[in-house]
Design a protein that fits this description.
Number of domains: 3
Radius of gyration: 23 Å
Oligomer: single chain
CATH architecture of the largest domain: 2-Layer Sandwich
Helix content: 25-40%
Number of strands: 23
Length: 474
């Protein structure tokens, strides 16, 4: 039996905020009296709000009340009532995720409707979400190939590398369309991002200073220079000291060569198609930047593909729920149930076979995706394991997990195959008694999922698990 629900996606970005409503068709794929396995069999975006400038009280504080009024206005305009929305995702991205009251805003909006996926996405997680939402990840998997994806927003460019559908690496550059803004159509500059001031000085662009009228030629020179930074990301040009200064906090650790690149974000529309109207429609450099990136990549004869979604690659995210029951071979040592909205880190089977030091390095790197301003949050580690694993193999795995997670106070491991009990018991032996440990199996997860864990059922033998997948439009 099929069911149709309405989901909302809200993305509060560095410079813009948007809301999207999606119809999602769900079907129970389980037969008879089995535990329901609800899967998505169809989806359709039927309403997109206009793109708003993100309201700020000042450079450090989001205007929560204006955000709420904006969202409420779009609900009214769309004709959708709060009670009609079954689920959704509220995601704060880009520079906005670093604002002082980002978590307060999330809490205020999450009560609008349904059981939301609520996330403050740092640059790594935003890169993954945008790469999935644009269709780049799907293109990589379908074509068994490698692709770099650039999500160019108002304040940052989130970059992800996918190989055969797996996330290989991410980085973020302080390059965006709203990092130079104008007071009016006369191009009087009212803001220049601090890091650009040194670039402007080195390039001798004398018209580019706050309070001056910008020269179009100078703007194009700057944007062309920024476009070359993307070639440096791809190792097609030597990485300059300016490039290293524009890295948000770390560069790609891999040097994959790929014949494909794709783009999303507000700037992307002007990479894929030429602007025929006002090039300063948004009172910033976004359109000029897009045109210069397009020209640079065409000159290099790189294959630019448009996998489906540009400006809405992040905001399309909406929480779809799959309710499952864990396997019965599980271990847990905690009284903190339920757990809500726990983000998932998925290790590949190849990751699980790495030697201890490399395994720890890989897992720690993925955990860093979920840090905001350097702070850790509770995450669930998704693993595959092998069917009929030997005890020695399970022992090797829990020792590697402990080496990577020894200083964490809450450990949540979700395995696909039936190794939860032995793996969990091994972890309990490693940790002090106060460490909360949950190790369950029978659940398949992917990067970008969120999970809820309910109180134990069946005399404590199984746990109810709700897997919340960001439904992405590609």
């Amino acid at each position: 039996m099929k069911e149709e629900i309405i989901s909302v996606g809200i993305d509060i970005g560095t410079s813009t905020t948007q809301l999207v409503f999606t119809k999602i068709i769900l079907e129970n794929m389980a037969s008879g009296a089995r535990v329901p396995q609800i899967k998505i069999v169809g989806k359709e975006v039927f309403y997109r709000s206009k793109i708003y400038l993100t309201p700020l009280i000042n450079q450090n504080i989001i205007d929560t009340e204006k955000i709420k009024k904006l969202i409420q206005f779009e609900y009214e305009k769309s004709g959708i009532k709060v009670k009609d929305v079954a689920t959704g995702a509220v995601i704060i991205t880009g520079e906005t995720a670093r604002k002082e009251n980002a978590k307060e805003v999330l809490n205020a909006l999450s009560g609008l409707a349904g059981d939301f996926v609520v996330a403050t996405a740092g640059p790594d997680l935003e890169s993954v979400i945008a790469g999935k939402g644009s269709g780049a990840m799907g293109f990589s998997e379908k074509n068994n190939t490698t692709i770099y994806h650039f999500d160019i927003g108002g304040g940052t460019t989130n970059i992800s590398l996918f190989d055969k559908g797996e996330v290989i690496d991410t980085t973020c550059l302080d390059i965006g369309g709203h990092l130079i803004t104008f007071k009016d159509e006369n191009l009087e500059i009212n803001y220049i991002y601090e890091k650009y001031l040194k670039l402007i000085k080195n390039l001798g662009l004398k018209s580019l200073k706050v309070g001056s009228i910008a020269n179009l030629k100078d703007l194009k020179i700057l944007c062309k220079y920024l476009a070359h930074m993307f070639l440096q990301t791809l190792n097609l040009e030597q990485k300059s000291s300016e490039y290293k200064e524009l890295i948000t906090y770390k560069d790609l650790s891999n040097s994959f060569m790929s014949e494909y690149v794709s783009f999303s974000g507000g700037v992307a529309d002007y990479i894929y198609k030429e602007s025929k109207g006002d090039k300063f429609l948004y009172k910033d450099i976004g359109i000029i930047l897009g045109e210069e990136i397009s020209q640079i990549f065409k000159n290099k004869d790189i294959k630019i593909i448009n996998p489906g979604e540009t400006i809405g690659a992040t905001v399309i995210g909406a929480g779809s729920h799959t309710t499952e029951i864990s396997g019965s071979t599980i271990t847990y040592r905690t009284n903190s149930f339920p757990f809500k909205n726990i983000p998932v880190i998925k290790l590949t089977p190849a990751d699980e076979l790495l030697e201890k030091s490399e395994f720890s390095k890989k897992l720690s790197k993925k955990i860093d995706w979920f840090k905001i301003n350097g702070d850790d949050q509770v995450v669930a580690i998704g693993i595959t394991g092998k069917k009929n694993m030997k005890y020695s193999e399970i022992s090797n795995l829990y020792k590697k997990l402990y080496a990577a997670l020894f200083n964490y106070k809450k450990i949540i491991i979700v395995a696909e195959h039936d190794i939860g009990k032995t793996l969990g018991q091994g972890l309990i032996l490693q940790y002090p008694k106060e460490t909360e440990i949950i190790c369950i199996d029978g659940i398949k997860l992917t990067d970008g999922d969120y999970i809820d864990l309910g109180s134990p059922l069946g005399n404590g033998s199984v746990l109810p698990v709700i897997v919340k997948t960001l439904v992405l439009n590609y």
